[in-house]
Structures are given as C-alpha cells and as structure tokens.
Design a protein that fits this description.
The chain is of the alpha/beta class. The chain contains 13 helices and 14 strands. The protein is globular.
C-alpha cells in the first residue's frame, strides 16, 4: 500500500525540523562556549602546560579553540614532577611545537618564555641552544653594546624557535645580594638604577630587532626582598626604596610600552592590604597614573604561594583584574591544574555577569592586548 503524499511530506518536514533543531542547539552551545565576551576574556589568560607537542596536550588545544586563549608560557623542566623535557628538548622540537600552537589558534598566541640568560634560561645549551650570560655579569661589565650583542643572540634563538615574548629584562635593583630569587640567582644588572636602565634599554632594543616582545619585571621592585614569592608571603615594607621605580620611570619616559610584570610582594608603604599584583593603588595608581605606563600589565604566576597560599582563586582573580592587570598568568609549574584556563575564564565571566567587573574593564585590557598583537604578530582585531 502506497504512503499518501501528505504523510510522506510530513515525515520529511519533521525530519528537517529535527535536524534544524539539533543544529540550532549545537550552535547555541557553541555560542555560549565562546561568545564575544568570553573570547575577550580568553585573551586575558596565559597558561603553562605539559607536552613537547600539541598531541601531548589535547586539553590545551581545546582551550585554545573554545576559549580563544591569549597565550602560553613554555618551560624546559616540570617542577611538580621534577622532570626535564616539559616543553623544550631541542631547537627542532620547539619550532615544531610553536608552529602547532599557532596553527591551532584563531587569534595569534603570545608564546612566552623566561630567557633572561645565565641561571634563568629555558632554552639551554645542553638542548642545542646558544650559551647565555647572566644579567649580573653583563652589569658588572656595564657596556650596553655588549649587553645588546649578548641579547641579540638570545633574541635570534627565540625568533627561530617561534617564541614571540621574553619575560625579560629584570629591572629589579641588586639591593640585597642575598636575595634568594633575584641577587642570589644573578638576575639583576646592578644596584645602580641608572646602570639598570641603560642595560635594560639595550636588552629591549635587541629583542625588538628580532620582533620579540619584552616584559619588565618585577614591579614595583623585588630586589630588596629576603624571601621568595614562589614559596610564601613576601614583605618588603622595610627594605624597599623609591629608587626601585627609577628604571621603570626612565624606560617609560623613553617610550617603552610592551609589558610590565607585577611582583607578588607586599609593601605597606604602597598598599596596607594587598600585595602588588592584587593592588589597585600599585597597578593603576602608581604604574598607570603616576608613571604613565600604557602597555600591558601581566601578573607574575598566580599559582605562586605568595598569592595562592593566602587568597582563593576567585578572590585573587577579582582583585588582580580590579587592580588593572591585563593578563593573568598561570604557569602551571608550581602546582598543576589542567583545567585552570577554563576556571579562570569562567570566574572572570561570572564577575562580569554579576556586575562586579564591568564589560568596559574587560574591553580596556582587550584593546591593549589586541594593539600589541597587531603590532608584533600581525593579528587582526
């Protein structure tokens, strides 16, 4: 018996409606997963991950795609597992990894590394990269041309590797040679602000010649501390001096506008309640308003104990964004959380949805990030 035409047509229509409904549901879910606001927030997040190839990091690849993740930071050593080869094993492997990362991203990624030279160098000679010299040794020689040439070697290796951001130069003053995280590791050029300024300018010039973005650190000064913010609360109230701002002032007045990285140091002279990364008086009041910095402010690792040991993730993120931080860095190398990017984006999104943080505040960070990506990475807005 033949099926009546109207019944056949109705069946087809029902099938089409079902397909359309499924498609609309899928599209709605995708829109919710990464709408315009979420995409802007995603650009404010930088994370570390485990894997020497993108195939080793499927969760990261998903975060890049669904969150519009802004950047990644690479390490050669995994601290929680005490294992080498986390992201960097050879020049060829590293170049392949950075190509894979950029290919996965709709918006070009910041791919960052700590390649200061000396003891803080992720691209080590034992992996096939050029030898490097510490800031302390360069500062003792105190010849900006020599510092420029030494940094040009670093910048060239970064450019070849596909790394577009270096967390350098350190502009902390060597005011406490026994400082376990600055002076003790030969990371400061000098105790003289003028020498630090001229050395840092040479570093920045060399990085820019190879199209690598710089990051001054650690604002407002970490050189006088006697404890390590990686490990716990660090109070510099009695040791910090105003001349630690001089390198920032000098460089900003001469046009520097890449990145400034915050320190998790507490200084009651600047803020009686919060460490610098979470302090609006320090970030907006001092760095932005007083020193006139217009570039990107990036936090030091938000998982370090000086912050994570005293603030919940939700509170630290809220305070950092309210303070004026543009990029929240989760290095995932003090502790490891494969879901940290999604958690961070969700927290910021909730803060906006509840009116705690305004959409305009997100827009201001997004504009700064987009401007630098357009300048250095040829990114479209």
């Amino acid at each position: 018996m033949k099926t009546p035409l109207y019944r056949s047509t109705t069946a087809v229509m029902l099938l089409l409606c079902s397909v359309l409904a499924t498609t609309l549901t899928t599209c709605a879910a995708a829109s919710t997963a990464r709408d315009g606001l979420t995409a802007k927030i995603g650009q404010m997040i930088m994370v570390g991950f485990r894997g020497a190839s993108l195939a080793d990091a499927p969760a990261l690849e998903k975060d890049i795609e669904t969150l519009n993740l802004g950047g990644v930071v690479l390490f050669d050593y995994d601290v929680p597992t005490k294992s080498p080869g986390r992201n960097i094993t050879s020049p060829e492997q590293l170049r392949k990894l950075t190509r894979e990362l950029q290919h996965a991203a709709e918006t070009p990624l910041f791919i960052a590394v700590d390649q200061e030279g000396g003891r803080v160098a992720r691209l080590k000679a034992k992996y096939g990269f050029p030898e490097t010299v510490s800031a302390e040794k360069l500062g003792a020689f105190n010849d900006p041309d020599s510092t420029y040439r030494a940094t040009l070697t670093i910048a060239g290796a970064l450019e070849k590797a596909g790394i577009n951001m270096n967390f350098a130069p350190v502009v902390d003053l060597d005011s406490n040679p026994d400082n376990p995280v600055i002076g003790g590791l030969e990371r400061s050029f000098s105790s003289d602000p003028g020498a630090v300024s001229s050395q840092a300018a040479a570093v920045i010039r060399a990085l820019h010649e190879k199209n690598v973005i710089a990051a001054l650190k650690h604002f407002p000064g970490h050189g006088s501390s006697s404890t390590d913010t990686h490990k716990d609360f660090t109070d510099i109230t009695d040791s910090w001096s105003n001349n630690e701002l001089s390198p920032y002032r000098n460089l900003i007045e001469n046009g520097y506008d890449d990145l400034v990285m915050t320190a998790h140091v507490y200084n009651a002279m600047l803020d009686t309640e919060h460490p610098a990364t979470l302090s609006k008086p320090v970030i907006t009041g001092l760095l932005r308003d007083s020193l006139g910095f217009n570039g990107i402010v990036i936090s030091d690792d938000m998982q370090m104990r000086a912050v994570a040991g005293h603030y919940s993730l939700e509170r630290s993120i809220r305070l950092a964004v309210e303070a004026g931080v543009d990029i929240l860095l989760f290095a995932n190398n003090s502790s490891y959380d494969p879901d940290i990017a999604r958690k961070a984006v969700s927290i910021v999104r909730s803060l906006v949805d509840t009116g705690t943080i305004s959409p305009e505040r997100i827009d201001s960070s997004y504009r700064r990030i987009t401007a630098i990506k357009q300048h250095y990475l040829n990114a479209s807005p």
